[in-house]
């Protein structure tokens, strides 16, 4: 299949997205504990994840009579479902058969068409692209200029919540969040950006090294929201290469430790991908002189999984 032609967004796109997002979503909290990094709690979004930013931005540019199709491991689908409901748009969300039960249950609460297919995100993405080819607008979770710009609005909130030099640490799957924050950071000279992947699926690091998408073996991981191969030709590869200062990986033990830390130290619930950035900081992998802000990017974890993590001694 030929690569989709996707426009690469620029910082001005993030400015436009900011007008859309701030009109609907209140800023998420920035918690600064006595010790450790500050936490940007995207878990407090109405869908439990930062993905609603990009979905609102993308669907704001879609006509009322147009049909939107997307593929998602869960959180982007919830964002699209929320935005479609809020803006009165028609949407189909395709999820893989192994999608988190918590995210699937949440999706069923919205007035969107939900399709489950295949056994991986790649299967869902391929099916969604087939559906879109019949006359719908495909909204990628990451390889879309409006989605990327929307995720970058997190940076504008940080600009209002912080002052001075900053190191922002965020999870990286498809790279939409890192690309968006990177576009915002490109307008500043005092922001350092660190991206964190699951060691079970280092697809962005492989792509950045090669200069293009490289298939990697995706292993089982608690961080299911960032465990997938990239769409060939994704604009996020070059954006991450240009704007992300460092890419790190975290292990399953480190992800478990981060979830337990959020629960025990702060009473906060996060999913595996949502805690990936904190996992890297707690493991001592983020070395920086400037104050650190960790993006806690999502909370949608199935309760049985959370229970296992909190009661296990995974190492």
UniProtKB/TrEMBL annotation:
Q: Answer whether the UniProt record assigns the keyword Lyase to this protein.
A: yes
Q: What is this protein called?
A: Threonine dehydratase
Pfam family, any one: PALP
Under the GO molecular function aspect, what terms does this record hold? Answer: L-serine ammonia-lyase activity; threonine deaminase activity
Ranges of residues in domain Tryptophan synthase beta chain-like PALP: 27-298
Q: Which ranges of the sequence are coiled-coil?
A: none
Which GO biological-process labels does this protein carry? isoleucine biosynthetic process; L-serine catabolic process; L-threonine catabolic process
Name the species this protein comes from: Prauserella flavalba
List required co-factors. pyridoxal 5'-phosphate
Write the record's keywords in alphabetical order, separated by commas.
Answer: Lyase, Pyridoxal phosphate
Does the record bear Signal in its keywords?
no
